[in-house]
Design a protein that fits this description.
Porin, mainly beta, 12 strands, Tubby-like_C
Length: 164
């Protein structure tokens, strides 16, 4: 399954649609402005909230939390020792971890579980400016979760770049 994501231009508070490979609007990323912490909602095409994404308030490193139906699903934070490439760890509540690595700001990275590829995020396939693709490789993977992970790591990388 391949999804097309239009890059946010102005940051938090912007809403943007994620389309499938046929141009059908599938998910809406609803950025919530005027909050103490960075907050997003991933909604389906009918407007139902599928996933809540927010910044963890009190942590030593920037951390994003993903919730579904009010229950924590995952925490995302940058790995401590990642010199050459951007590496993020996604800790799921069931104890499993996903690894996100690549050139996050260039929108060229992968999401893996235990060395197995789950999704590839890339601009290479697309000719549309300010758009990147999320290609969910495994049929049993949760597309909403993988899109939420991509939104989080891009947000964290951009925030880190802006603070540098």
């Amino acid at each position: 399954m391949r999804f097309l994501v239009r890059d946010r231009i102005l940051g938090i508070g912007d809403d943007y649609w994620i389309e499938d490979e046929h141009g059908t609007k599938v998910f809406l990323v609803d950025g919530k402005a005027m909050r103490l912490r960075d907050t997003f909602e991933l909604k389906d095409a009918q407007g139902r909230v599928l996933i809540d994404i927010h910044q963890k308030m009190f942590s030593l490193r920037d951390t994003m939390v993903i919730e579904r139906d009010g229950q924590a699903l995952a925490k995302i934070r940058r790995k401590r020792l990642s010199l050459l490439r951007n590496h993020y760890r996604v800790s799921l509540v069931d104890g499993t971890e996903l690894d996100v690595s690549g050139k996050i700001l260039d929108r060229e990275f992968a999401v893996e579980y235990d060395g197995e590829l789950l999704a590839v995020i890339s601009r290479r396939w697309l000719s549309v400016v300010d758009t990147y693709g999320v290609d969910v490789v495994r049929d049993d993977a949760d597309p909403a979760l993988l899109i939420a992970v991509a939104v989080c790591v891009i947000h964290l990388a951009e925030k880190e770049r802006d603070e540098a």
